[in-house]
Amino acid sequence: MRESLRRHAARHAATLAIAGLALSTVLSLSPPPADAGATSEPIAGEARVIDGDTIQIGETRIRLEGIDAPEAGQTCGRKWVGTWRCGDAATEHVARLVKDQTVRCEPRGTDRYGRYLGVCSTGDVEINADLVRRGLAWAFIKYSRAYVEVEAEARALRIGIWQGDATPPWEYRRRAWDGAADIAPNGCAIKGNVTRNGQIYHMPWSPWYAQIRIEPEKGKRWFCSESDALAAGWRPAMSR
After folding, report:
1. Distance between CA atoms of 192 and 220, rounded to whole angstroms?
2. In the annotation, is 213 catalytic?
């Protein structure tokens, strides 16, 4: 009886060891969390402007943390009448700030697309706060409350996006996506274009989106998400 119990205990221990090894293997193969490998060191250098809240230093894309700027091609209402191209204005303002300057970004982790989130500055000017202060971006309160007070100041002065009616960019993107997904195959609304500058994907709110025809024989294709496009080696369209 004792011998039988010893054999049972040995078999049970072996089973647990195998299960533990299997679990360890599964865990080692699991994808890392979104911010795994994110550097805590500042990223600095000359910057290229992708849009009003995204820049690129070297090969590193950086999303300005805590803010959301109007999309390229988006318009906002004026104080009295008409509209102005608020998306282009935000992009051009960032371009002026970074021109011939060393941009320094303090990392704040990464987003789900692998972009670094950062607070970026040129000299004494913090770009994130400056955009909100000038009414060229919203405080992105879904993810951060860092710029809520700065936004309140701009709103009180009724400058930039606060001088008239303006659709928050997250709502603008949602509407553009819903409209494009209704007619895109399987609702996959991102257009992958092939140009002499490489493989570039366009979101439904891209100013060039409507001009692109998907021709599979030329290598053009649809994507269901930005992460799919990035994983396939395509890069986002730049606003300028």
Report:
1. 5
2. no
Name which of 118, 109, 110, 136 is nearest 47 in CA terms.
118
pLDDT in tens, 48-74: 999 999 999 999 999 999 999 999 989
Structural tokens at position 215: 């021709």
Range(s) for CATH 2.40.50.90 in the chain? 43-165
Catalytic residue among 61, 65, 108, 115: 115
Neighbours of 87 (CB within 10 A): 24
CA–CA gap between residue 134 and residue 90 (Å, rounded):
9
> Helix, strand, or coil here: 180?
helix
Number of H helices, E strands in the chain: 6, 15
Query: Which amino acid makes up residue 41?
Result: E
Give the tokens for residue 212. 């692109």
**Fold (topology level) of 43-165:** OB fold (Dihydrolipoamide Acetyltransferase, E2P) (2.40.50)
In this predicted structure, which of 4-13, 86-95, 191-200, 225-234 has the lowest mean pLDDT? 4-13
Annotated catalytic residue within 65, 71, 126, 151 = 71
The catalytically annotated residue of 61, 63, 133, 221 is 63
Q: Is 63 annotated in the active site?
A: yes
